[in-house]
Write a structure and sequence with these properties.
By secondary structure, the chain is an all-alpha fold. Helices cover about 75% and strands about 0% of the residues.
Length: about 80
């Protein structure tokens, strides 16, 4: 895996030494985390694209925070 960072390779080597059931649990949690990061990046890119296209508008920051907490807090 030539593009893996040293830290990630070390973590994977450590996980590989664990029992299979632990590896599966860690793998599922890692994949879930990666999906959350991808979704967040997609949301950010959509926002940037919207601003670049001139579709920006004023927002109520309390409402934005409440929506973000509702969407991401329990994933």
């Amino acid at each position: 895996m030539p593009h893996m960072t040293k830290t990630l390779k070390e973590a994977i080597d450590e996980v590989a030494a664990l029992p299979e059931s632990d590896q599966d649990q860690i793998g599922r949690r890692l994949l879930d985390h990666v999906e959350k990061i991808r979704a967040l990046r997609a949301d950010l890119q959509a926002g940037v694209s919207s601003l670049d296209a001139g579709r920006g508008r004023s927002l109520d920051i309390k409402e934005v925070i409440a929506r973000a907490r509702a969407r991401y807090a329990h994933r």
